[in-house]
Structure formats: C-alpha cells, structure tokens
Amino acid sequence: MSTETNVSVFASGNGSNFQSMLEHDAILKKIKLLVCDKPGAPVIERANRYNVPVKLISPAEFTGKEAYERDILTELRNRDIHWIFLAGYMRLIGATLLHAYTGKIVNIHPSLLPAFPGLDAIGQAIRTGATETGVTIHYVDAGMDTGAIIAQQCIPVLPGDTVDELTQRVQKVEHALYPETIKRLINT
Ligand code: GRF
C-alpha cells in the first residue's frame, strides 16, 4: 500500500459539496475517484472539469446491493482508496462497504442530528416550526444518519424562511464545514 491518503467521493446529484472539496488543493490532490449512481447528474461534469476519474454505476444492472457494492469495492481497491466521503449520495451504504471501510466512511447531513434524519431534512425543520437547525458531519453506520457525530454547526431558522432560503444558508455552512472537517480527518 502506498503512503498516500487517497479519497473517493460518492454523490448522486448536484455536487455543490463535491465542488467545495475540489476548490481546496489539499483535498483535490487526494480525490482519486467520484462514484456516481445517476447518469447525467451535474456532479459528473464537475469531476470532468477537474480531471477526477468517474465511476458511473447503475444499481439496476446488479442482482442486489451486495453485487453492486462488490463492484464498487473492486474499483476502490484498484485505486487504493482509504476514505469515502458521501456528498448527496442517495443510498444507504450496505454491509459490503461498511465492513471494508469501517470508520472510514463519512456523510454530511443538513440538520442537527439526531433531529430530522432522512429525506428533506430542511423541509422537516421548517414544517415542524424548529427555531434552529444546522449541519452534521458523521461517520456512517448501518442506520439512516445514525453514526457517531464528528462536527456540527447550528443555523437559526428565521421567521418566514422558505425551504429555498434556508437551503442556501445551510449549504453555505456545508461548503465550509465539510472541507475543513475532511482536512482534519485526512491530516492535511
Ligand atoms: C447536501 O445538503 C447534503 O447535506 C445532503 O445532500 C445535499 C447534497 O447537495 N446529504 P449537493 O449535491 O452537494 O449540492
């Protein structure tokens, strides 16, 4: 194994968090692979612009989650990947990857976990009348947004906030907190 710390990012959509990583040279030079499960996702174009290799993979082409993750695992091992950072990857990580990368898979979630896990965390905060929400970076375990917390930052929910307005403020925090936390984790 080389002494380099190699990173893979998993994403399914826009990839603004991925972009925030690409804009830090110390992280960019460690990113050796983007794994994306959605053809045409804007995150792919972002990877192309920075010459990051992309593994585009379609779960429907596999017999189940185990076969799908084994295929990803082969690619991760071929590239000597040490860390996986999830950035809007819209699937639960299964046993195959969890066992191979114990303590090395990290996710970002747009709430102060354990509040508002799962989908539409920002909408959940607004609909329940919460006065604050935030961003959580956490290790990934077998549950939905249940792993040990690494970093959190609070964001007030303002009276009359729309989902779009709050999303913008949440993402601004994400784009600073995730790269900063990644640098700390991978020791750059
Ligand atoms: C982010 O809000 C992140 O917290 C959540 O998914 C969203 C991804 O946004 N897990 P983007 O694709 O990085 O723009």
Whole-Å distance between the termini?
19 Å
Structural class: alpha/beta
**Unreliable spans:** none
Tell the overall outline. Answer: globular
Query: What is the multimeric organization of the chains shown?
Result: single chain
Q: Give a quick account of the main beta sheet: strands, pairing sense, barrel closure.
A: 7 strands, mixed
Ligands bound, unique: 5-O-phosphono-beta-D-ribofuranosylamine
Question: How many β-strand runs?
Answer: 7
- Report the average pLDDT across residues: 97
Order of helices and strands: EHHEHEHEHEHEEH
Number of helices: 7
Helix content: 25-40%
Residue share in β-strands: 15-25%
Strand order of the largest sheet: 3-2-1-4-5-6-7
The radius of gyration computed from the alpha-carbon positions, rounded to a whole number of angstroms, is: 16 Å
Topology:
Blueprint: E1 7-11, H1 16-22, H2 25-28, E2 31-36, H3 42-49, E3 54-56, H4 65-78, E4 83-86, H5 95-100, E5 105-109, H6 121-127, E6 132-139, E7 149-156, H7 163-186
Parallel strand pairs: 1-2, 1-4, 2-3, 4-5
Antiparallel strand pairs: 5-6, 6-7
Can you offer a commentary on this structure?
This protein is of the alpha/beta class. It is 37% helix and 21% strand. It has helices at residues 16-22, 25-28, 42-49, 65-78, 95-100, 121-127, 163-186, and strands at residues 7-11, 31-36, 54-56, 83-86, 105-109, 132-139, 149-156. A 7-stranded mixed beta sheet has the order 3-2-1-4-5-6-7, sandwiched between helices. Strand 4 (83-86), helix 5 (95-100) and strand 5 form a beta-alpha-beta unit. The longest helix has 24 residues, at 163-186. It is globular. The two termini are 19 Å apart. The model has no long low-confidence stretch (mean pLDDT 97). The structure holds 5-O-phosphono-beta-D-ribofuranosylamine. 5-O-phosphono-beta-D-ribofuranosylamine binds next to helix 1 and strand 5.
